[in-house]
């Protein structure tokens, strides 16, 4: 604190007040008595007088912009601010920013430009909001949820099925650790307990349709749980219901889809698939295990390059595979017999919401009369109608967080970064119109896209 | 009942091979009835199977039915329509609420229901005829394909009150279009046979196209004698409505992704003959080439395809749902999308 020793004479009274500041809680009381005594000490000044003094000091500082006294000046101001009024806080904050000296000056400029940048943001897709890392958790978030949120935001868990299963598994832990507070029932309070957890997950990464449907079912089960059941029994019952949901609508559904779609694969076929769908992977592996001889073309795209994982799984089984990136699909499409893709969600008008690039693959296939088969469980059905890819979508975060292969140069040199006139836009999903799809294979059967809305009917319920 | 007893006397019900033999024979004997189409004959054959079966539980019965259906399918090269009937009946058997006292009562009930359904199904063609009547205007020129009993009924019904004239395709190789021609002319309806290759030539003179069906599939598409797809494509290009007539027992859970995804598509169809010296797959085709040479030196005027060449051609084809305007059925007039919703509802419930 040697800088403070060089304080000018006018600031001396304030130095003494700094030491006294913590001890003083209500300076205004004493200052009202000593209004007419010059020179006033800080504690004796009214708010307006203190503000005036700060303004004068700030003007003085601005006039003499030199390296030395400025850091100390900012220290003074920040100390004053602690007992000052809120408007003083904002002025000293701006002074602090400006008071960083010559090195502070350029800092101030770049800060201004970056704040302008984020204010401008992405002109299109600005309605999605920018992807941000999960902030400090507010409220009582269970550690399993915090871990899950982190995994979501870093894209360690991707895929509609994987996210749903991990969410439900985490919620099982939350439910088991939950204790009903006194004078409350589990069926009502658990819902309010789960809400901040769900909000935390949504802030990490926007919720997928599968998670939404599963959570809606879970809330239905919770609100319908019997009040008279002892707490542990009720919790066990809920966990059992969650297990049943996962088993019935995901695991077993996938097996049925695997068998049904497997019948569409014949010896000598060339199957084309895009990125990585867990269901399509199961279908291909199952068909190969059944002894069918076929080959696979894996089409992939940046930035996620998910197809590499699928490629490693398939080639480890011995399936002849070809790997290419999306722009070269035109050169192989004439050799393909069927296109198999997965889905993030299925909409009432028959449109399929899936990884960005799927629509291109489907349209190209349709153009060449190659049947496009979408493998999708019924729990991915969304009652909404979606007509285009940009009313509802998600942006991937900037920077390259997806590549896992070893690099000779650092990742930063290979990725595009935001510059003054360059915004990076990475939507994660796109919409395939129903006209490009030949059939949708679900666990209730093979359905043409025009009849997707009959799925709830087939399941025997009015809503899903 | 007495005729059943005589057939029972001929079979020893316990031995499995005799039962499956029985079902194919029964099926063929039912088919002899002109009115019965393959799905109905299959349903009746399966009901007969239930009668003669000694299954004691539902599981055994369904298993026996599936085996019988499998045997029927294996006995013919075009199993699609009889498959529709089998699936419908087996779904009905499994979904029927069991309120009978004993299992033998249940079996009798199933048999009775099966025969009742078959009897009722014979009235479906009249229902469809009355439904389609509303779409046939006076002085219509209709194009139809091959021979279909339900189309015949509709045309004869229409002729009672309106003036219609009919173009019918020859429908090679079986030439069933000629049978249509004979029956229509006998009824007094002006009819002309057109070559299969002249359909686009005649399309602009036609008011609408009316075809029967072997099966209507889950996508809303149509499986019918080969040539229907061509007619549908030409009709769409000329903006002519394409109507299909199908009884509800022809609705099938099949979903072909393309022409070659049909169960009737074998590796033999559209195969190229290998060179006549030493080949594995097609000695008959090699013989076919020889006989063609013979024929061309002999007759000179009209050439015919040899049976081997005809064997390389499909018997049925698949018409996509977007080419079909409406499907007339005993459950009503449905759009192709409506058909798939109906089929999903029927089999998933």
Report on the structure:
The complex is a heterodimer of chains A (464) and B (349). With 464 residues, chain A is of the alpha/beta class. Chain A has helices at 12-20, 27-33, 47-63, 69-83, 86-98, 101-120, 143-153, 160-177, 186-204, 209-223, 231-262, 278-289, 307-317, 329-332, 358-367, 411-414, 455-458, and strands spanning 270-274, 295-300, 321-325, 338-341, 345-347, 352-355, 372-375, 381-382, 429-432, 439-442, 445-447. In chain A, the strands form 2 sheets. A 7-stranded mixed beta sheet of chain A has the order 3-2-1-4-7-10-11, with helices on both faces. In chain A, helix 7 packs parallel to helix 9 (186-204), helix 10 runs antiparallel to helix 11 and helix 11 (231-262) packs across helix 12 (278-289). Chain A is globular and about 95 Å long. The model of chain A is unreliable at 1-37 and 70-117 (pLDDT under 50). Chain B is of the alpha/beta class and 349 residues long. In chain B, 50% of the residues lie in helices and 11% in strands. Chain B is built from 14 helices and 10 strands. Chain B has helices spanning 2-10, 16-31, 38-52, 58-75, 80-95, 103-121, 124-133, 149-161, 176-187, 199-202, 228-237, 283-298, 307-311, 336-348, and strands spanning 140-144, 164-169, 191-194, 208-211, 215-216, 222-225, 242-245, 316-319, 326-329, 332-334. In chain B, the strands form 2 sheets. Chain B has a 7-stranded mixed beta sheet with strand order 3-2-1-4-7-9-10, with helices on both faces. Chain B is globular and about 65 Å long. Chain B starts with a helix and ends with a helix. Classes of the chains: A alpha/beta (464), B alpha/beta (349). The A-B interface holds A 264, 338, 369, 371, 373, 438-439, 444-448, 450-451, 454-455, 457-460 and B 218-220, 253, 255, 257-258, 261, 321, 336-337, 340-341, 344-345, 347-349.
